[in-house]
Amino acid sequence: MSRVGKNPVEVPSGVEIAVKGGLVSAKGKLGVLEFQATDDVEINQEDGKVWVKPANDGKRARAMWGTVRSRIQNMVIGVSEGFTKNLEINGVGYRAAVQGQALNLQLGFSHDVAYPIPEGITIKCERPTAIAVSGADKQKVGQVAAEIRNYRPPEPYKGKGVKYADEVILRKEGKKK
Q: The whole model's pTM is what?
């Protein structure tokens, strides 16, 4: 069984962590993130490190131990460096462009899809077929990338659609004569 929770969370310079009760907040150059931890864990801060310990020997406390530690680690990385998900668009005539506070997608439908960019998320299109979703909150970045991909997921025959940059599409063979 993994013991991720045993390792402390290193707090780099430029990041401030505040722990009040179960509320953990991280402040850095990319913004402020907050997280309400459960009562099953104890969070202590000392010497530029954050330690998480289970409050009791219950099953839920042991389960939440590593989860809370990972959430705090993601907050620290998010406010200091940020997270990025890269998407690629494959298909003839498929393209994306950022217009104001919306991402305009042309994905082979009879209409364009306008995806409103949520607060705290930055979307860039270096090329018409490449989308970079970035932000401080790892969960929010992943959710936005998944919603964009969901408009036209890649199909297995030609690979047309929106896919993650590191995603491998298993191709199927077409029909034979």
A: 0.84
